[in-house]
Amino acid sequence: MEEVGELLDDLKPIGLISEWLPNKVEDLLGFNLKIPHVMVGTHNIYPGILSVDVDDIAVGVQAAQTLSQVGFKSLACLGNGTPYSDLRIQGFEQALKGEEFPFSVHTESGLEVPNFPQTRKHEFSLRYFESFHDPSEEMKSWLRELPKPCGIFAVHDPLGRFLSSACSQLGIRVPDDVAIVGANNDPLVCGLTYPKLSSVSIPWDHFGQYVGSSMQRMVRGETGFKRTLKLISPSSVELRHSANHLAVREKILRRALSFMSERIKEPITVAELCDHLRIARRSLERKFKTSFNCTPWEMLCQMRVNEAKRLLMETGHPISRISELCGFNDPERMAVVFKRLTGKSPSNFRK
Questions:
Q1: pTM higher than 0.90, yes or no?
Q2: Which of 182, 281, 318, 325 could form a disulfide with 160 if both were Cys (CB 3.0 to 4.6 A apart)?
Q3: CATH number of 249-350: 1.10.10.410, 3.40.50.1000, 3.40.1160.10, 1.10.10.60?
Q4: pLDDT of 37-71, one tens digit each?
Q5: CA-closest candidate to residue 34, choices 279, 174, 221, 311
């Protein structure tokens, strides 16, 4: 930190954007800087500093809602012992309150970086590791004993890739036996995972824009700008092969869900779905109620709202355009369904 102090003295910045790092915050605060300061990557609140982070509890809630919606009767979380891991698992458990799913948590603590000095192991808690490791014997036993089919939430994408590899070693099929949802929606990690990894999407562009605009406001000395804590909510879950609808065992339901997801942008109806499947509406509704505790129409509405949430968070499209892209075709109709399922109007959700 001595080098950082010398750099700050030399540059004399009018504002500072820093990343929270274990055992480094107190040193940074010790410089007693009298300039606007935004710290990213922490839920902690420090006097005079704006903390900005992902809403990790909401990430866990989003993953739980997605996996439980698909109809798994057994759910689990794989963590890595970091602060954000604990918060995401807490959110997952919170979303399952009142449900009767068998639920299990395993924390894999042996994910060390090769050749990383032992004296600096404490820094590993924030490293976004992408190395391959062998699962511990405890993790292997945990995976074998999970009631299947099971939906597992891995608290970030590299851990999801690690989990998928561990399942392959043990002969556990993904997504047939175990469906996996990661978090952060890193396109590189998700794309390199086999099968491709489903993941909770974080609006990183919005995150960066908020940090930058907040620093501008603080530098301008805007009055009334509150320097405390801002949590950025996840947008949706990007479903890929690791947790797609093939995890549903009944063939007619797999076909129904695939039809819905492939035509999410079209204003399809349940009648059209039944015609495509060549099944009576009452029979299909009974199957959906048994497996998913909802009707086909409710499932389709939820899929469309999930896509609308993603577009509201990650694009600048007007709401009228988003309603078209989600198969509603009518902004007023979308607003009614969106508020019924989320408790907010589309415009308030975007804000």
A1: no
A2: 182
A3: 1.10.10.60
A4: 999 999 999 988 999 999 999 999 999 988 887 66
A5: 221
